[in-house]
Amino acid sequence: MLFVQAFEKISFRTEAGGDHEGQGDIVSEETETMHESHEEDGELEILEDDRHAAHEPRQATGQADEGENIPEIVEEFQRESEEQHNAMNDDSSDDDDDDDEDYHVPHNWSGYEFSKLSVNEGEAVSWEYRQNEVCIGSMYANSDNMKEAIKRWSTLSLQRQFKVLKSSPRTYDVRCVRSECPFRVYASMGKWQDFWEVKKIVEHTCLLEQLEPQHRNLSAGFIANYMYPLIVDNPSYEPKSIICAVEEEFKYKISYNKAYRAKQKALQMRWGTYEASYHNMPALLHTICLRNPGSYYDLKTYPCAQKPGKQVLQRSFLALGACIEAFPHCRPVICIDGTFLTGRYKGTILTAVAADGNRQLLPLAIAFVEKESGDTWYWFLQRVKQMIVKDVENVCLIHDRHKGILQAIDDIQNGSTERSRTALWPDLKSRWCMRHMGANFHTQFKNKILMKLFKRLCSQNQERKFNFLWKKLDELTKKQTAELAKRSVNTEDDDQVSLEDVGLDGPNVRRKRRKAIKTFSEWIEHEPKEKWALLFDEGGARYGLMTTNLAEVYNWVLRGVRSLPLVGIVEFFLYRTCEYFRDRYAVAQKDMLDNRKVYGYKVTEHMEKAFKKARLHRVTPVGSMERRYEVMCRDKGRMGGRREKHVQECVLRPDACICSCHKPKLLHLPCTHVIAACFEAGGLQARMYVSNYFLKETIWMTWRHEIYGFRILGDFITDPGHNATYIPDPDPEMFQGVGRRKKKRIRNNMDRSEAGRDVRLCSKCHETGHTYKYCTALSYGGRTDGAGPSEAAPNPAPQATGRRGRRPNNDGLI
After folding, report:
1. Alpha helix positions (H), 598-695
2. Which one, 121, 295, 591, 669, has least CB within 10 Å?
3. Quick one: which of 407, 369, 413, 367 has its CA closest to 387?
4. How do strand 726-727 and strand 311-319 relate by DSSP bridges?
5. What pLDDT does residue 800 have?
6. Tell me, what DSSP letter sits at residue 687?
7. What is the C-alpha to C-alpha distance for residues 227 and 217, in angstroms, rounded to an integer?
8. Is the pLDDT of residue 101 over 70?
9. pTM, full prediction
10. How confident is the model over 406-435, as pLDDT tens digits?
């Protein structure tokens, strides 16, 4: 305390006496005298205390700040302060002396640009990649990258071949294939390193005598790494296109077998092996269902007798939650179809597809089964009913006349005591595909014009026109049968094939066969009309859909991925469906913001055309208690000849409309007669007779759901080897065998009936009119002149001819 007070007094005195001129106006003489007296008294007190303390030396007792009152310690502090002060004075004097010396400063010291400097925070990797070049010190993350760099350098830059002398987990040594050449590349990974480094390179001394057509270091694995992006983006990329791409880039030719193996390696890098996909399939489906609430999957397995402890994955089923939630907002119509797998193992993909108010397909479910049969179809439809359709009534199934489908539908509708099956779907409406029926018609009568006439009969909605076409078909098929009897049967395609019993005939039904059938009526007499004719569609269950084109189109979409492992096909199904929802929701959201629109764009176009046509009709009211009208249709034969008058009758009710043309009942849309009657009635809107499935709000509700991917949780391509739990069927009949896989199905009667002129389709850009050899759409892989580097260009391709062989002119006109 005494030390602090003394310090304050000394400092105050120093400040007071430091500048008398500046302080004179503020401090008076009396004040200075008083301060001086107080200071003298304080100094006397301090001196007396010091003398007293000198006679009585103090010892340290461990108290805080007691060193301030011990003379020995205070003296030590003062001595250290003086030494520090002297050292500082010495430095300042040296600096003053150095100022007189003249030092030369480089001019570029002040001209550095620091804007591009960056701080290394240790995130950069310790290796680097060089484009088509390998040198001493080149570093690579792993051995695969190092080997690929050496191969690319050898093929592209050096154009020479090498052989591997040693390849171990830590060293890699290659030499030139020619014994007299000292070329060598040596790379290794040090004991404490996590990267590969090129340690030694000896240049080639051998000379290139000629260009070799092949290169031994262009292995299938190297080509797979090079072509990986193209093959993964387009799994249907053909080996021939790979051959052209390699020849364009590396100037070497590879065999078809090597190109095929390279493609399989690239697909395996992306989606794993076929065997691993069976093991990873349950985990993948479970993850998809966890990521997408409301989704459902099911498996059918059985113990493998040949491999104890293993389970054979026989069937799998998947339905996404977004599709399940969207189905109640779609028309209650489901198209089902099957297509075969083209990978290593045989099997069939079963699909169920619905349609929204814009006729856009909605994938409902996908299943992998061992084959297409009554048992597999029943297993599939049972899950479609329980998990997707649920309580939706009067759902219509459109399908072909496959015996397995018909048996499964009969069992799920009516049950079967023979096969111990209960009736799970009694209100199901079964309808046949018009295209498949047309193909069956063609196999019997061998005439495409008559087949088109039969399709017109199938899609006819007016009874008058239906009867007219039926009579016309009887006349024409009778003549065609007589013509066929004169022909000789040379091939199997020339033989007539009649409709077979698919289990719907009674015990007393006797069908005519092949040449015994003379007319159309004899051919179709045992087929129920409600199955194939729109006019007899009870309750309008079809909603105007006559074919399984929705399912056929989706199978065409799957065509490019049917050769992939199961994991790849499921991934495609998930992300393609996600794309459907994303794109169509954007369109539906845009329509929702447009107050002028009431329906989806398809029905909007339909209604606009119907309104224009309805203005040409003449309406006559004929009802007194109900709104009943006679509508005289526009005469189509205005250019000469006798004009026929066709009259339709329609009734307008608050909840429904009835017309003699049957369109409102069959299509669930108002026909032109009803629209014309609404104009005459005044105050009635034709939109009240449009089904809710076609409204823009319903379409928006269909596509407003979210679908989440699974890649964030893993790729599910790990190969467990012998530790696999689920395996494919070991039956040799289920194995496709070695060699090129079957990509195209055997042409059936429908293909032959609808076959036209061959169309050139490029396997790279998927455009018509040219093949992959003449494709210029991509940067590499195609030859603009049709010749390789060592080949002469062939003659120009002949120009496409028009009708009767005429060539188009320069403007592309015939």
Report:
1. 601-614, 663-667, 672-681
2. 121
3. 367
4. parallel
5. 41
6. G
7. 16
8. no
9. 0.73
10. 999 999 999 999 999 999 999 999 999 999
- pLDDT per position as a tens digit, 587-611: 999 999 999 999 999 999 999 999 9
Q: Tokens 């609808």 — which residue?
A: 754
CB atoms within 10 A of CB 585: 17
Cβ distance 244 to 782 under 8 Å? yes
Enumerate residues 6+ apart whose C-beta is below 8 A from 654: none
234, 214 Cβ separation under 8 angstroms: no
User: 811: alpha, beta or left, given left = phi > 0 and alpha = psi -120 to 50?
Assistant: alpha
Residues 6+ apart with CB under 8 A from 203: 183
The pairing of strands 348-355 and 361-369 is antiparallel
Asked if 205 contacts 178 with a C-beta cutoff of 8 angstroms, the reply is no
Give the closest residue to 727 by CA, choosing from 280, 265, 366.
Answer: 280
Q: Work out the pLDDT band at 61, boundaries 50, 70, 90.
A: low
Residues 289-302 have a mean pLDDT of 96
Q: Are 413 and 426 in contact (CB under 8 A)?
A: yes
CB burial string 29-55: b at 16+ within 10 A, e below: eeeeeeeeeeeeebeeeeeeeeeeeee
Within 13 Å of residue 683, how many CA atoms lie on the same side as its CB? 4
Half-sphere exposure (CA, 13 Å, Cβ side) for 682? 1
Q: Supply the Cα-derived Rg of the chain in whole angstroms.
A: 45
Burial class (CB in 10 A: 0-12, 13-18, 19+), 322: buried
Query: What average pLDDT does the structure give for the chain?
Result: 80
pLDDT at 508: 78
Residue found under tokens 């198209």: 335
Which H or E element spans position 566? helix 566-592
The residue assigned the tokens 């018009």 is 434
Dihedral sign (CA 153, 155, 159, 161): positive
Cα distance between residue 624 and residue 478, in whole Å: 49
